[in-house]
Amino acid sequence: MLPTIRRPTLLDICRLFFLGAIWGGAFLFIALALDDFGPVSVAAWRVSLGALVMLCIVYLMRTPFPRGRKNWWLIILVGFLNSAVPFFLISWGQQFISSAAAALLMASGTFCAVLVSHYSSDDERINRYRLLGVIIGFVGVFVLVFWDIVETGFGGLKGQIAVTIAGCSYAISSVISRRLSHLSSISTSAGTMLTASLYMLPLAFWLEDPFPDNVGTVALWSLIYLGVVATALAMTVRFVIIRINGAVFMAQVGYLVPLFGVIWSGLYFADAVNLQTILALILILTGIAVSRMGN
């Protein structure tokens, strides 16, 4: 029996904006980390640092770890879909597209969340406002992808597809995470990141050199931000939102991530924001406004 979700309050909306700001900045820091680390290593160190921080928090708070084989199977699955898969796909995709474009493409996960939640829960059904909002948001994503193909060809298409799949993976894991909402958010977050690090660290040592020579200070601090802030802190906030407000409300962070992703990228990279970026951003933010009318 899934726990009942509540109508979002002002505090809940502020919590969602806070998470959007953190994750929006992650794309910029991924781009900076990729200067010295490979995409698999970036994902591996991100989940490993996040797991280390969360395990320390669990120990200091004396929070018990989840028990039961069924819970741990779900934790392993969420760790794979919520951390291992998207962290790698985003890092790999950003080798071919800008951080602002990657942030905008993450909005695609909202459609997956609406569709999966409609068939897997009783309190997050599709209605005309949610459907219309998702369609408007996807028009914005289409504008970004189509315009980029017209200007640069298909060279960045594989990166766009990778980031889009990452957004869908996040959305699916959000729905599954609701079945863990009876557990402690702190220990559940630690468990999912620990299992994700067990996937990614061996892969990093196999495919890349996770300890490259002459690592710059910017790349190193970018990895620390990704692990501690954009993963450990953000994962905890994410589980709290899903437990209180549900997966569809949580998926709307996919509309806020583009906003903050474009802002942070525009502040750092002078050429990160152009006409299609602004148009796509307007459509995506309109989509979230329409979707909110259906709650």
The shape, in one word, is: globular
- Which blocks of ≥5 consecutive residues have pLDDT under 50? none
The profile of the biggest β sheet is: none
Helix content: over 70%
Order of helices and strands: HHHHHHHHHHHH
Structural class: mainly alpha
How many distinct helices? 12
Mean pLDDT: 80
Termini Cα gap: 21 Å
In total, how many beta strands? Answer: 0
As for the number of domains, it is: 1
Q: Using only CA atoms, what is the Rg?
A: 18 Å
- The percent range for strand residues is under 5%
Description:
There is one protein chain. By secondary structure, the chain is an all-alpha fold. The protein has one domain. The chain is 77% helix and 0% strand. The protein is built from 12 helices and no strands. The chain has helices at residues 10-33, 39-61, 69-93, 99-105, 109-120, 128-152, 157-177, 185-207, 217-245, 247-251, 253-268, 275-292. Helix 3 (69-93) runs antiparallel to helix 7 and helix 4 (99-105) runs antiparallel to helix 11 (253-268). It is globular, with a radius of gyration of 18 Å. The two termini are 21 Å apart. 54% of the residues are buried. The mean pLDDT is 80.
